Amino acid sequence: MDSFQRNGLTFDVADGGPADGEPVVLLHGFPQDCTAWRHVSPALHQAGLRTLAPDQRGYSPMARPRTRAQYKLREATSDVLALLDAAGLERAHVVGHDWGGVVGWALGAWHPDRVRTLTALSVPHPAAMAKAMVTSDQALRSFYMAVFQLPLLPERLLLSGGGAALRRMLRSGGLPEETVHHYVSRMHEPGALSAALGWYRALPFGARDPIGKVRVPTLHVWSSGDAFLGRAATEATERYVDAPYRLEVLDDLPHWIPELAPERVAELVTAHVRTAA
User: Fold this and answer.
1) What is the pTM of this model?
2) Catalytically annotated residue among 59, 71, 183, 200
3) 3-state class of 169 per DSSP?
4) Side-chain half-sphere exposure of 262, counting CA atoms within 13 A
5) What pLDDT was estimated at residue 207?
6) Which residue in the list 97, 125, 220, 255 is annotated as catalytic?
7) What is the rounded average pLDDT for all residues in the chain?
8) Helices 177-187 and 192-201, packing angle to 10 deg
9) Whose CA is closest to 250, among 275, 229, 273, 276?
10) Dihedral sign for Cα atoms in the order 98, 248, 37, 230
11) Fewest CB within 10 A of the end CB: N or C in the chain?
12) Is 181 a catalytic residue?
């Protein structure tokens, strides 16, 4: 399949690997798209796994609703359920990075019947993140999240000068120039950046819809060189998982784990998937 639909929106999907392989859903974050997994997926295919990597809402050109309420986490998780339904899958392994990791945490808590295993890259459980905001340096690390919720200003800051600020942010995290150029180009598509920022602007809705304990086998992968996400929330995450849990720390690697350590990600995901076989 190369696309699926939900509520009038059409989502692009990269579907690869053996059709009868264990299905693994790969969820990207900001400002990525499904190509974040382009070096991870081939290794998963070689291990006999099928991968489904959607461009999430705001990133697929035909799935860019305009109001911030349409970027609530409930909407994003329902998109993944619609993907599973369209693919004829009762359950799948879920791997998410950045915002994709947040969606993964929510799926593992709200819909454990649809998730075989969860692998969360970089992002801790949201409840652990919230606590770390007031007990560590996490609020300083996450200052940009407050800025991104402002109207209009983030678009001007990030896209002025051909997207110079966005390019600097991505380059400083060690992303290759080719990848930086691709992500910045995608954000220049009509309405793309505002749609991607919709995820941040919908954050206030989350206070009324908290994510509880995750009840599926969980692998949490964090990199100690992550400038955005600190150790405090990472180490507190285990208490929010009521299932087998393991933390894997990648030393000195920046935030962009799928792009910078694809072989290791594929190795970890494959091993985690096989624990549920």
Assistant:
1) 0.97
2) 200
3) helix
4) 13
5) 79
6) 255
7) 96
8) 90
9) 229
10) positive
11) C
12) no
CA pair distance 102, 56, nearest whole angstrom: 13
Fill in the amino acid letter for 45. Answer: H
Q: Which domains does the chain have, with CATH numbers?
A: 3-275 (3.40.50.1820)
Tell me which of 12, 15, 79, 98 is the catalytic residue. 98
What SS3 state is found at 135?
A: helix
Q: Is 183 a catalytic residue?
A: no
What does the pLDDT profile of the chain (277 residues) look like in tens digits? Answer: 999 999 999 999 999 999 999 999 999 999 999 999 999 999 999 999 999 999 999 999 999 999 999 999 999 999 999 999 999 999 999 999 999 999 999 999 999 999 999 999 999 999 999 999 999 999 999 999 999 999 999 999 999 999 999 999 999 999 999 999 999 999 999 999 999 999 999 999 887 899 999 999 999 999 999 999 999 999 999 999 999 999 999 999 999 999 999 999 999 999 999 998 7
Q: What share of the chain is helix, strand, coil (3-state, %, to 5)?
A: 50, 20, 30
